[in-house]
Amino acid sequence: MTDLVAPRGTYDLLPPASATHLAVREALAHGPRLAGYGYVETPAFEATEVFARGVGESTDVVSKEMYTFLDRSGRSLSLRPETTAPVVRAALQAGLQNGQLPAKLWYVGSQYRYERVQHGRYRHFSQVGAEALGSDDPALDAELIWLAATGFARLGLTRQRLLLNSLGDATCRPVYRAALAGFLAGLDLDEDTRRRAGINPLRVLDDKRPEVQEQLVGAPTIDAYLCEACRAHHDAVRTYLGDLGVSWVDDVHLVRGLDYYTRTTFEIVHDGLGSQSAIGGGGRYDGLSEMLGGPSLPSIGWALGVDRTVLALEAEGVAVAAPARCDVYVVPLGDAARRRSVTLVAALRTAGIATDVSYGARGLKGAMKAADRSGGAYALVLGDRDLEAGVVQCKDLRSGEQSAVPLDDVTDQIRKRLE
Ligand code: AMP
pTM of the predicted model, to two decimals? Predict the structure, then answer.
């Protein structure tokens, strides 16, 4: 034991539970990889300005939740609270906007937010994300939404719902914003909320407190304000989603916590998770490139929460097949057998057979217990006498049957038995 523990709001991933997280990451990334998205990795920290300009100063994420620090040269850096702004920063830096568009990228990685900690809400969590930069084609919106929806379905989840909205663009959003600001001005709101409404009135729609929600009944909704181009875009996205067999719920109150969204926004919520129900979300951010000093680059993306997806799987009682830790467990008995086992284990592993081996001066009984616990299908017991005879004892750990197998043929024999 130690008195040193993981920081509040964080947790360690250790076997066997860690296998589920890995399987979730892989399953969620599977779709983008099949759809032409290439892997992107950016640093865990960025110049604070990337988030201040990209995510928006009025957001909780930037104003309250960032881990910001000065490095030893006095630069203000922040651990990434999200990865869309860094990906756009990286794409602009590499000049991807001058190549073939859309540039399609996916990532997996840690995010850091100083949040109020509760079940499903952590200060360190992991997301799988996909971003398509440089196209305003509504078919791309539908592609990404389908990829997210099928990613969750692939894992075996069934109790999720897709919420969909359009937030308009630079033409129609200001008109809606003004109408909403006028409405909010007539409400009884506390000082802090009023200040937020001044910076971005849409943020107030996201306020979950009942006393605020009650007053928002009758607030103007964006759907009545969409300009013709945004309405046509939104209709096209919904037509494609219908064609793809994706079901969704129109939610005119869906705003989401980051300022850069335009037009299509969506969230996937899971009904088994209580208050922290969003397992993924995303949308268009047609103006983000310009906010970061780049050219016009209409884009769309999503981020899916790995930790919450694991919780959703638990809530539904779905076990994600975690591969057995090994197929074969080798038990050398004696010094000469120990030495021979080193190359035997290497040969099995080279042949692609997952192999573990007993270390230390363990007796046969203890080593066989370890073999049982390993999850392997076979134990290969190698004694000095076997070695002299050029064989190894192969024990089927399920049936208990045992037979001698020639040492120089054991890799092939095991491979056949495992087929
Ligand atoms: P966001 O980047 O806020 O759009 O979040 C995208 C997804 O990341 C959410 O739908 C959640 O599944 C997950 N997520 C966001 N914040 C947290 C958090 N503090 N703890 C765990 N998962 C989170």
Answer: 0.92
